[in-house]
Amino acid sequence: MTTQPAAPFGRVLTAMATAFHADGSVDLEGTARIATHLVDHGHDGVVVSGTTGESPTTTVAEDGQILAAVKDAVGDRATIVAGIGTNATAHSVELAQQAEKIGADGLLLVTPYYNKPGQAGVLHHFRTVVEASDVPVMLYDVPGRTGTEISLEVYEKAFELEQVVAVKDAVGDYARGVKIMQMGYALYSGDDVSTLGWLAHGAAGVVSVVGHAAGDQIRAMIEAFRAGDHAQALTIFTRLLPATDAVMGVPNYGATTAKAALQLLGVLDNRNVRAPLVPLDDDEVAALRAGLVASGLIP
């Protein structure tokens, strides 16, 4: 019998959207409602204040309010991971320490973006932020957004830090991911279309975006795969492809499509986002709706 990979934050997580009022202020009640919806539909945990949560446009104080609201809403039955990664090390340290005080179960730490430090700088950033708290850390490798890929050498050195336990991988190189898992990391798929492939290579689970609309189905896929019913897992994955394409298929996917999906599901009564993002237009919403209908997620 094969051993199942460790899943320190659970197996099904979503990088959840942050709700906003029409005036652009954070809607804490709506944000808590999103978290409750996710945990009611197959999720072991949620990641707040990631890119899908529009963290580039929220303040430190707002991030704390969002985390506290989500912890109050679902913290007794789900893992709460706080996105604390920015491209300023001191800023990330401040966010990490705030998240620890509020009671986050984990921290998501992305590679610094735009300023593109070298690998020595990436490692220094990781080490400084990780050592600022005692909270378990999931590194986030997403070169499509950051312009920098974490080297295997940095992975090896970062794993020497006791709190570093996992990686959210949006690189999509399965062979490289296996090497990272061999170092001891729990690997989470950071791209919905790659989740089934990652499971086949030993991943622990997923940090999803499509999970806003398909949490129960993603959970069923992972459970089928782990039970050895790979055909059923593939059937579920295939059924979700129209929704996956619809959610991830627009240029500003993530927050925009997640919130439009939540509006279609009746979880939110709006799809407000903060600039520079703009809400999906009517044609984009129609395409999103068609994808969700094709996957059987809405009637």
Automatic annotation (TrEMBL):
Positions bearing the site annotation: Part of a proton relay during catalysis: 51, 114
One Pfam match: DHDPS
GO cellular component labels: cytosol
Molecular function terms from GO: 4-hydroxy-tetrahydrodipicolinate synthase activity
Keyword flag Thylakoid: no
Keyword list, A-Z: Amino-acid biosynthesis, Cytoplasm, Diaminopimelate biosynthesis, Lyase, Lysine biosynthesis, Schiff base
Reactions listed under catalytic activity: L-aspartate 4-semialdehyde + pyruvate = (2S,4S)-4-hydroxy-2,3,4,5-tetrahydrodipicolinate + H2O + H(+)
Predominant place of localization: cytoplasm
Cell compartment(s), UniProt: Cytoplasm
InterPro entries: Aldolase_TIM, DapA, DapA-like, Schiff_base-form_aldolases_AS, Schiff_base-form_aldolases_CS
Catalytic residue list: 140, 168
Gene Ontology biological process terms in this record: diaminopimelate biosynthetic process; lysine biosynthetic process via diaminopimelate
EC number(s) on file: 4.3.3.7
PROSITE patterns, sorted: DHDPS_1, DHDPS_2
Ligand binding (pyruvate): 52, 207
Pathway it works in: Amino-acid biosynthesis; L-lysine biosynthesis via DAP pathway; (S)-tetrahydrodipicolinate from L-aspartate: step 3/4
UniProt function note: Catalyzes the condensation of (S)-aspartate-beta-semialdehyde [(S)-ASA] and pyruvate to 4-hydroxy-tetrahydrodipicolinate (HTPA).
Subunit-level organization: Homotetramer; dimer of dimers.
Family: Belongs to the DapA family.
Protein name: 4-hydroxy-tetrahydrodipicolinate synthase
Native source organism of the sequence: Nocardioides ginsengisegetis
